[in-house]
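We modelled the chain as a single entity of 68 amino acids. Its sequence is:
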Amino acid sequence: MDDVSFLSQNFLKRTLGKNNSHLVRRPGVGLSEAAGSVQSGTEVLQNFEQLDFKLVTDVLIERPFVGP
């Protein structure tokens, strides 16, 4: 499954429920977690030019991830 399909509205509606998502079960906590993720991502992107991805690239090329 590609990223676009995984994050599609229909797939999320089928898979997210009260047993696996704070957004459904505890909306306040879910929104707080989402906001924290957005904030962290923003901080990373602000420093994007300073990040060195060579190590990550080398590891992924040498040992590619194989999902379940």
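As a brief sanity check on the tokenised model: DSSP finds five helices and no strands in the chain. The chain has a mean pLDDT of 82.
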